[in-house]
Every structure is written in structure tokens, then in C-alpha cells.
């Protein structure tokens, strides 16, 4: 019996010594965690300065400290030293050194206005994207407000056509993040705004204009008018007479959108000067003839109802000069050298890309003219 118990004890000790290494390897603190390797990419670093941030902090206007010809749709990571700040996508470019970006991923420390950071731009990926997807209407308004604040024109030709083909270029598959990076900030339900509608109202523009309002019906400043008609010259010999004449006039627009801000109508004020050339004959006696020039100066108020039609009114003065005469009398020449009021209305209608047909109905003249706008 004692021998049997001794054998069992020796066998138990031997088994314990053999199983001890296996139990040590199964302890959790002995396990080795292997991090997955991230796919290799080609990247470029650059320095960027934050010019301004939109109200909801979704869009940033950046100035690149060196020219790099950025492309819309590219994604880059903003870093401050080794700490990541945010991930951005380029949505609009303004030359080689100014871009608008949309924040697509948050980190605890987001970039601030007037801050300079290091950008790591991904050049190529498994599924590179060439174009940013369409922005929502509220996002478009937020970005436009930031552009207007900095007086920047959205003149990127690629972005203007993104909605025609962005569906053919889906967003790239997101790259798995290393476990060493800090976790993104997650908004808790308590931090969410209880009045989302009020927040949207504060993010809209204070100005009444929309994107369509920027387009002007009447972008031209200069008017050159050539026409024919009848000019009025009231004399003692003839109480009121209209003489057939030709005219040449030049106008300069002084101000646009003076009184009307409705996008369906646009007004302007222009200063116009010119001359009418005409002849008068047989006034005081048979055979007398006079060649005259009438100088005119007016202020014209025009309302364009569309790009192709407008109405106007004008007021000013007209002075007649006798430049040549034959068998004339001094009294007739003095009577013809009169001064009167120029007052009337008219309309414009487009007949070509920069050409208009003009009609004048006034106390000073009646006629039709061709107008070149530039």
C-alpha cells in the first residue's frame, strides 16, 4: 500500500512539472498583439495657414505657404507635431496657394483660426478619387458665406461640374487607423443641441441674395449709340418744328442697383452726351439754308427686366449751334441757336450679343438707334 501511494505521488509531481510550461503560455499577459499593417501610400507634406472657419466649423479656408497646385477631392491629415488635428477633403481651389476644405474627421484638438499646421496629403491610393461629391444645400451656403467673407470668387472649373459625374467616382475605402492614434471625439447626447432649427438659422446668410443673384442683367459700363430721327428746335419763325437728323452719343454707367434689389429687375444710372446733326431751310425767306449741330447732355435711369429688354427715362439739356448757312439772316441764325430741355422715355431690346435696338420718345427728339454695349 505504501509503495502504491509513493508511485502515485511521484507520478503526480512529474505531470505537474511537464504541464507547467503550457499553463504559463496561456496566461493573458504573455500573449503578443500583432498590429495590422496599413497599406502603403504616396504622400506629400506641406505647411498651411488657417484664414477663417465657417460658423459650424465644417469648412476651413486655408492659405498654402508654398505653391503646390492642389486638386479637388484629395484628402489630407492636419497635424501639429505628432498629434493629429483633423482630416480634410479639398472641395474648392482658388489658384495654387488658396483652398477651401471640408472637415471629414475630428480629433480632440481641432485647428483654430490663424493657426499654422503640417498637412500630409495622400497622393495615390487603392481607389483614388478625382472629384469631391456634391455638397448639401446647407453646406453650399456655409461655404459660400466663408468665400464672401474673404472676398474670394468660386472659379474652380472642375467643381462646377462635379454633380454630373461624381457618382462614377465613389469615395475611397477608409484606411484603418493605427491603435496608437488618439480616439476621435464623440459627441454625447447631452452635448447635442436641443434646438437644431435655430442653429441652422444662425448658419444661413444675413444677406438676402442667393447664388443666382450674383449674375447681373446689365454688366456693361459703356454705351455707343448711332441713330436717325427728328430733333426739336423751337424758333420764333416756326413755333415748334422737328427736323430730320442723325445722331452720335456716348454713355457711361455711373452706378448699378441704385434703388432696386429684386433679382428679377436691375436698375442703373448713366451719364450720356452726344450731338444731333441736321439742316433747316426756307425759314425766313425762300432759299435760306442752315446746317446745325445740337449738343445734348442727359442723365438716364434704366430698368432692365431681363438680359434682353429694358426701359429708361432721361432728363437734361440741349443746345443748338449754327455751323454753316446760306442766304441766311442774323435773326434766323439767332433764333435757331436755341437752348431747350431734353426729357423723354424709351426702351432697349437686344438684337445681338452686345447690340441693342433703342427707341427714344422725348420732347427733344424722336428716333431709333443702334447701341453697342461694352
Notes on the structure:
The protein is mostly beta strands and 374 residues long. It folds into two domains: 42-168, Elongation Factor Tu (Ef-tu), domain 3 (Beta Barrel); 222-373, Porin (Beta Barrel), CATH 2.40.160. It contains five helices and 14 strands. The protein has helices at residues 2-25, 137-149, 162-165, 196-203, 330-336; strands at 42-53, 59-64, 75-80, 83-93, 98-106, 116-124, 222-232, 242-256, 266-281, 289-304, 309-326, 339-350, 355-362, 365-373. The strands form two sheets. The protein has an eight-stranded antiparallel β-barrel. The chain has a six-stranded antiparallel beta barrel with strand order 1-2-5-4-3-6. A hairpin with a 5-residue loop joins strand 1 and strand 2 (59-64). The protein is rod-shaped and about 170 Å long. The N and C termini lie far apart (123 Å). The model is unreliable at 22-31, 128-132, 156-168 and 198-214 (pLDDT under 50).
